[in-house]
Design a protein that fits this description.
7 helices, globular
């Protein structure tokens, strides 16, 4: 019987690339859109987990709208933490009720370790995901975090429309590194940062 993988934020480029690779290896995959599973809504997550109880959870849903803290919009700040941190905790905690042997792969960001002037909410929320992953590993779960650097996604394109696309990490290459985490090639608690410059080296290891 094939393992079930649930990927949050299912409409994104990374989620779709990962889904493609997983299905090629005969995993049973569900990558729900926000309308199918809202990671900030407990009832929505509960209903989704009842419908599809994963063996492997990929917490991929994310949110970023840069702003200086000087002009902080409270609703925007709340969204960063509700989706990036809250969603990761809610989905993981509820999934564990249905499957105590859940394997957790969190999608972080290189922004977790790199300060960006107007990205403080995003950087801080992704740093929280890295620390949560390490705590869950210490708590006896299999949990790793794979963090992309600058990646060619729709979200990135909307933020930096004039950026040279050739300098960006391809979602499919990033997804190949995530597959190594799916296969448990990394010890629990590992944080891997993936960039265009190092992805081939990571894949050859």
């Amino acid at each position: 019987m094939s393992e079930k993988v649930l990927i949050t934020g299912g409409n994104g480029g990374i989620a779709q690339a990962l889904k493609q690779l997983l299905e090629a290896e005969d995993y049973e995959v569900w990558a729900p859109s926000r309308s199918e599973m809202d990671v900030t809504n407990w009832q929505s997550i509960e209903a989704a987990m009842q419908q599809f109880t994963p063996d492997i959870l990929v917490n991929n849903a994310g949110y970023v709208v840069p702003q200086s803290v000087r002009e902080m919009d409270l609703e925007n700040t709340q969204k960063h933490f509700s989706i990036n941190v809250g969603g990761t905790f809610y989905c993981t905690g509820i999934a564990l009720r249905y499957n105590p042997n859940l394997q957790i792969v969190n999608i972080g960001s290189a922004a977790a370790i790199e300060p960006h002037a107007t990205w403080s909410e995003y950087c801080a929320s992704k740093a929280a995901v890295v620390m949560a992953t390490q705590c869950w590993a210490a708590d006896g779960l299999y949990a790793v975090v794979i963090s992309p650097g600058r990646t060619r996604t729709k979200m990135r394109k909307s933020l930096f429309p004039l950026e040279d696309q050739g300098t960006l990490l391809e979602p499919l290459d990033f997804a190949k590194v995530v597959m190594k985490a799916i296969h448990k090639d990394y010890p629990s608690g590992t944080h891997i940062i993936v960039r265009k410059q190092n992805v081939q080296q990571l894949l050859s290891q």
